Design the sequence.
């Protein structure tokens, strides 16, 4: 047993079942801290005795072990998402023995996150991470029957109009961030995700063959997919490449840069570029451009715009799915979400099933005969 002071607060530390326990007692009293340590130890001992053939472990340790195992099979972006989920789960579950987590605890967590303003979809993703950890430890089946996921909207964002696009691109071109315009244009011309654009390297762009190859992606299906560059993407990337005549294949297309203003007219200028590091994001410049253009949308809506326009243009859904880099499960969901958009192409497709001379074939004659028969019976 050991209690010690950090500033005005007392902490305790001890070892339990081979693990180091170090926690704040949230008190300024040493006596209360000693009692808190005793109660905490008793809680852990009770939990251990209540587990049958299941080693007593804190959720924090189980979560760390689970994430270490998943790093080798998850895309870097997916690892970041899981880390963000665990950051939210931690304050609620880290101090619990993993075998003590009950459905009621998960329900309380969902309600607290809702009160914090988190979206239902976000909370479901966090509970999904918790589920994966419990499942790995053969504990999910114990709570599954009493756990309900929150009802989440399944909307796809929105596609911006041609007029909104013109206004938005004009403001992006006027932005102090010189990479904003080419990044937004590439998003509209390829349907790539924000992270896929941000992490582009010059070796992934073949200007001679008018082809772009995606690197790291959210899904396995998206990683390494080739995307033909249309004229729009080709011209903007050629223009952007001209700014970097000494570019190297491994360097980032959209590198981190520092911008300022120079001259009497305070024109924006770039005074530091590090091509070995990707740009952090375009958030500030993007929000400012949207406000000036009076366009309300997310960066991800540029991807929705590209997808919608391809489908409206009659592109087969399977081709769109390949360009977008959807996993098989995502493709099924997207087919339901975007299904109404491709109806014109679907009508053209089923015309091929009419058969030769469909205008006067047996089906049409049969329909006319039945119509006449119904009319006769009615009279």
Sequence:
């Amino acid at each position: 047993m050991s209690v010690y002071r950090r500033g005005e607060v007392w902490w305790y530390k001890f070892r339990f079942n081979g693990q180091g326990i170090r926690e704040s007692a949230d008190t300024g009293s040493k006596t209360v801290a000693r009692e808190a340590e005793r109660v905490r130890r008793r809680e852990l001992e009770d939990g251990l005795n209540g587990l049958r053939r299941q080693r007593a472990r804190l959720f924090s340790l189980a979560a760390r072990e689970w994430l270490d195992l998943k790093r080798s099979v998850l895309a870097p972006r997916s690892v970041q998402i899981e880390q963000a989920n665990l950051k939210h789960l931690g304050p609620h579950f880290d101090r619990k023995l993993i075998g003590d987590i009950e459905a009621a605890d998960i329900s309380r967590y969902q309600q607290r996150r809702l009160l914090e303003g988190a979206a239902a979809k976000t909370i479901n993703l966090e509970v999904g991470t918790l589920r994966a950890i419990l499942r790995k430890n053969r504990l999910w089946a114990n709570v599954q029957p009493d756990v309900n996921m929150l009802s989440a909207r399944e909307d796809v964002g929105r596609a911006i109009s041609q007029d909104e696009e013109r206004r938005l691109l004009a403001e992006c071109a006027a932005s102090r961030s010189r990479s904003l315009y080419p990044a937004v244009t590439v998003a509209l011309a390829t349907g790539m995700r924000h992270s896929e654009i941000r992490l582009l390297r010059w070796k992934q762009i073949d200007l001679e063959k008018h082809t772009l190859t995606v690197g790291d992606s959210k899904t396995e299906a998206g990683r390494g997919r080739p995307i033909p560059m249309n004229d729009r993407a080709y011209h903007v990337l050629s223009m952007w490449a001209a700014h970097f005549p000494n570019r190297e294949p491994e360097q980032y297309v959209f590198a981190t840069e520092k911008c300022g203003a120079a001259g009497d007219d305070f024109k924006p200028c770039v005074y530091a570029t590090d091509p070995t590091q990707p740009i952090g994001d375009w958030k500030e410049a993007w929000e400012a451009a949207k406000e000036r253009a009076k366009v309300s949308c997310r960066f991800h809506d540029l991807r929705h715009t590209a997808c919608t326009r391809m489908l409206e243009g009659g592109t087969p859904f399977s081709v769109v799915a390949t360009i977008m880099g959807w996993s098989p499960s995502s493709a099924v969901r997207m087919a339901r979400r975007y299904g109404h958009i491709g109806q014109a192409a679907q009508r053209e497709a089923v015309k091929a099933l009419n058969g030769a001379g469909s205008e006067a074939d047996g089906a049409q004659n049969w329909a006319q005969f039945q119509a006449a028969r119904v009319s006769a019976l009615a009279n």
In short: The mean pLDDT is 84. The CA atoms of residues 109 and 115 lie 10 Å apart. Strands lie at 2-6, 9-16, 19-24, 205-206, 211-213, 226-228, 255-262, 267-278.
